[in-house]
Amino acid sequence: MPRPPDPAKRRDLLDQVREYMIRNGLAELSLRPLARALSTSDRMLLYYFGTKERMVAEALALDERRPLLRARSLLGAVDAHRDPAWVRRFMEEVWQQFADPDLRAALPLYLEIMVTGLLRPDRYAPVVRDALTEWKDLLASVFRGMGLPEARARTEAALLVDACFGLVAGPAVEGDWDEAEAAFRLLLDRLEPGWRAT
């Protein structure tokens, strides 16, 4: 009977895969060169992960630098009073995470995943879709808790999430984070009045 995969070894491989992808991108990712760089074999990678696509998805999902993981901790107590000013502060704290050099270094990879998901939806579209859905669900629940009806809560969440993803994409390509910061604050100025229940 074959020995089950070692969870610690599996996690270590995922961490190494993620760092390799950040350095080398996704477009040319091939199992044999990756395995050589990780001092293992392509057969071993398939043994642990089944497919290259699954390996990539899991490596990204376990990235502790992901703002979504930190955002959940920022939400604090479930009974905390939340109003438009609270949402604004929450989003400003999330935005500040993008100042982290490690996260900024990983942004090109995430953008590459998004584009590849559009071009090859059979491969990486679920990775992008899941990330966007998690963000929208999280913020929609906050807006519902503030008294917004379901449809409006989901629309406000979609507008905020999609706009912020766009604001991150620009400076990840061109490097002008000051302009993105100003645009982000203007976005909040425009959206905050719409977060009030009527």
Protein described:
The structure is a single chain. It contains ten helices and no strands. The chain has two domains: 7-61, Arc Repressor Mutant, subunit A; 67-195. α7 crosses α9. With 198 residues, it is mainly alpha-helical. The protein is elongated, with a radius of gyration of 19 Å. The longest helix has 25 residues, at 150-174.
What is the percentage of strand-forming residues?
Answer: under 5%
- Count of all domains: 2
Q: pLDDT under 50 segments (min length 5)?
A: none
Supply the number of helical segments.
10
Pfam family, one: TetR_N
GO molecular function, one term: DNA binding
Domain HTH tetR-type: 13-59
Protein name: TetR family transcriptional regulator
Summarize the structure.
The chain has 198 residues and is mainly alpha-helical. It is built from 10 helices and no strands.
List descriptors:
TetR family transcriptional regulator; DNA-binding; 2 domains; 198 residues; Arc Repressor Mutant, subunit A; elongated; 73% helix; DNA binding; HTH_TetR; mainly alpha; 10 helices; Homeodomain-like_sf; single chain
